[in-house]
Structures are given as C-alpha cells and as structure tokens.
Structure prediction request, 254 residues.
Amino acid sequence: MKKILKVEQIQKYYGGKENITKAIDDISFDVEEGEFIGIMGASGSGKTTLLNCISTIDTVSSGHIYLENQDITEIKEEEIAKFRRENLGFVFQDFNLLDTLTIEENIALVLTINKMPEKEIEQRILEIARSLGIEEILQKFPYQVSGGQKQRCAACRAMINNPKIILADEPTGSLDSKSARQLLEMLENMNQTLQATILMVTHDPLSASYCKKILFLKDGKIFNKIEKGDKSRNDFYHEILDVLALLGGDAKKC
Prediction:
C-alpha cells in the first residue's frame, strides 16, 4: 500500500520559559492510503494537538509531517489555505456549516473557491449526496435539517474535493446515538467503497471500533496501537476497552 502520511519525530511545546508544557513528545507513525485510523487518549494526552498539527491548524515545535512527498511543516503561511482546500477534508463535531447557505451551497463551497465549472460542481455534488443519502435536502438550509443530516452534509463537504486524507475531530460528539451510528457507518462505507483515508480523534470506544487501527496516546506519546484485522467489531471494541483500562482511565473519562 502507498504511504499517504508520515509523521516523523514531532514535538509540540506550549508556554514560555517559566511554564512549558510538552503536548506532543516525539511521536512517529505512518498512514497508508485507504486506512481508517482512530486516535484515542485521556483529556490532555495530545490527541487533538496531534490532529491540529497534521491539519496545519497548529505548527510543530520540531520534527516533520509529510503528506505524500510534501513536508507540510514547511508550507508558507500564505499557502496554507490553498493546501488545505486541495488536500484535506475536515469533519468537525459542531458541523461548521454556514446557515446562510443551502446544504448544496455548503458542500460546493470549496469547489466554488477553486473555480471549478458550475456543471461539474452540480454533477459531483449530486453523486456524493446520493452516496450519503441526502440528495433530497440539498435545497434546504442547515437550520431546517436534523443533526445527523448536518453531519452527513459535513461529510459530503469533506469528500467533495477528493482529498488525500479526511481529518475528523470527535465527529459524533454532538449527535444522538442513532445519528452517531449512522455517521460511523457512513465513514466506514466511505473508507471501504471510496477508499477514503480517514484519521479520527475520538474519546468513544464504540466509535473507535469502526476503525481499522487505533493509536492510543498518553502524556504526548504513543502508548499502544492495535489493529482490527479479521476481528469482529464487538471483539475489537472489547480489545479497545482493555487498552483504555491499561491507560488508567475508563471509557467515560477518555
């Protein structure tokens, strides 16, 4: 398999000389194309900081992150927005949809900014909306649809530009259990049928059980990693719980 992401000995410090916090402590790992990887750890373990560094929202203090052959730690500030639009897809906990735009317009935003022809935009939106079951709400506004439909819209927006990697930060955090399950099944389907490469931060072991591999962080380091392989999701879920117990906190605190 082709390596899509390489994280190489990254460190991240916050604060000044008097009070320095090391949020990430020498983390290295690779992500292959088509993988669905979960990142877990207690509050303060560094998982969100790690995702923020990979997404270029934050910068590393040392080390390198490569997306394919591009060192994203060396991208100039004025080029970051373009890099994100062309290479990354984001799924956030709070959807980040614009209420003044229809569902269709929210999904189309990045393609419009990239000046893609209108007919091509319409065709691409229709295809992905059908695949995620929201073609009937394209003309509605975010406030007119359910939380689960908003999250599906956010997933469409994340996938619309065929990104190299999708970054999801607690994507089920604001959903009820039914909508959360639908979203996780959708992400799993995107991974399996569209070969989407997904990196998901989650505190929830049930959500993590949909992934193919889990990285567990503790005190800014990789504490453990496990792979689903041929295990059932139920067996993988219990294996995740076992590792969380070793981390020193139960699933609710993680």
In short: The chain has one domain: 3-247. DSSP finds eight helices and ten strands in the chain. The longest helix spans residues 177-193.
